[in-house]
């Protein structure tokens, strides 16, 4: 058998390789062109989206500040009763201060004014010379509108409008009828300037009666300047349309009205680019769509990319933002270079193709197979078939190397994919794994998502240690796998969040049952290193049709629903509502305000007296936190306490309140206003209790305020103690060793066992108000109250009934043997400054607190 020598690759393919190279250049050129077009579409979409988002955000601020100013003016006029017809001198002074001092930084405001139902009008208009003109119609002007050449009635008159009726103006009548603030349509002013304007209007009410409307004008020329400033950071043209398809403003500072003062559509703009894109929008009615649309058009041998985006706000603005940019502005000289390279590649490739096809054949077959195999490697296809051909030494070596590389890549890819798509600790899907597994689901597919979040896991993790914390997470994952059906996809999204996803149609009741079944695994304790650990969890629910954003949008919505669920004790789950997004934004603002409140010491202690039912006198008080915000006013505790708990800021707030309450109590005792055995009750968060160095901090507070430890009682909520019973019990014992009393707050709502209660150090039990409210309605609750009192007596502890609101409740509690009581029946919480004058109701009689200070 004759054996042919194995030829070298150099000898066999030197000449044809040159021809193949030419062919490859052609293929690359075509691929490059296609890649260029895809890149151009992607870049234009992202860039225009970014431009639009920036403009939209800046426009929110540009229009939002005048609108807030207008609402503030209306509120001030109403609150301070500034409208005093028939002469408007008081209101005149206030509006001048507003436009010249308070809101002088808002350059976009052209006019601030007020018109009344009696057809009076007063306002101020900014002039180009940095001066202000008074606009007035009242008794002094004989009910005609005068425009003064200055800021007072004593200046000369520059213009006069007879029989001016402000209540018929487009900025008055619609908002007076609806009695809601909003933006007016674009209209022409009746003054000598005849400017196009939009106005923010707010009705002013007094004693539930409409007295007038405040108006804040923004000339369209200011919006033109705004867009021109925005365009400096971009390379395109921007304009804004209203809901009728007419121009509001353009970044090229072109007129938006004709010579006859008729407003123009963009197709009639003096800017050829605006006109071309506007004609495209008009022909396809894109401004009527409720979603953003990207399109391209050619004009003067140049391709332009454009995006029209709806712009709406809660005050009836319904505009569209259009951003247009040329292809050359997007990619510079790259299009010309791309075209030249494409032409060269086509020429070379065409010539190489004609020659190469006649030469290439069986010699190159193994090489083409290897090239195809390499392509399959990029598609995770690890099989490398190579057809038989002329055996070449180099190709055999190459095939062997490619197969070896394929095997190693397969192992590496499998390992990497597992690391990315699965959680290393629990073996569940990771967040990326969940996204990847649902990526092929079409929008509109029926599905359900339940997001499970652990409460206070950070504190548990800190107390148990990270290794034990990891074991706890593994146990949680195992319980989920045991109770969930196979069609439920389980994933661990973060340190303390798990997700349950199912591609099936759920009713509201069915998805809630799934959430409840998931939460039931936390009803039993987890055993970690011989320690029973109770966990609390909440669930956020999203179900229905998948949105276009896919699972990522649902994960965000479920997270918002979970945050809402964590703020309440019941129910343990919460469905996503669109309003939660607004709430989330408000929570972010509230968090920033809360941080400033801590820095500025804006928190004040209010005291609610605790009544000794046996001796019928006030023997102590509970210190309650109140936040007086300079911008928000008095913020209810339920609005900021949960946020402070979640963010950890409750530690600093609690320290400030504890220090303030101890200091004021000691001062009252020293002055003889309160008895020496006065009992001060202060609420203590479990976050404070578990923080490092809390005992030392507590001793420091007592030393600085000089309050004896026997006068202080720390209240800890029962439901928070059961999460880490051993650790909290030890700390409470150390606190009690200092002489400080311990009270278990909201007793009866935390579901703690009597065995745990036997280990827990406490001096008093506070009976939750829910039992007191129902005590007079049903004997069942009366029996519960009796049982709690009996338990407290057996533990040689006192009982304090919360939420006493009637004399019958007080009498009943005294008969049952309850020692102390507090509630609105006796007094509402008040600051120290009002303590001596606030009344306390005892036994149906009204007395001053001062009577019980001795």
From TrEMBL:
Listed name of the protein: Diguanylate cyclase
UniProt xrefs under PROSITE patterns: EAL, GGDEF, HAMP
Positions of the EAL domain: 587-843
Domain of life: Bacteria
Membrane topology label: Multi-pass membrane protein
Residues spanning the membrane: 12-31
Gene3D superfamilies: 3.30.70.270, 6.10.340.10, EAL domain, PAS domain
Localization in the cell: Cell inner membrane; Cell membrane
Keyword tags: Cell membrane, Membrane, Transmembrane, Transmembrane helix
Domain GGDEF: 445-578
HAMP domain ranges (all copies): 361-414
Keyword DNA repair: no
NCBIfam families attached to this UniProt entry: GGDEF
PANTHER family tied to this protein: CYCLIC DI-GMP PHOSPHODIESTERASE PDEF, SIGNALING PROTEIN YKOW
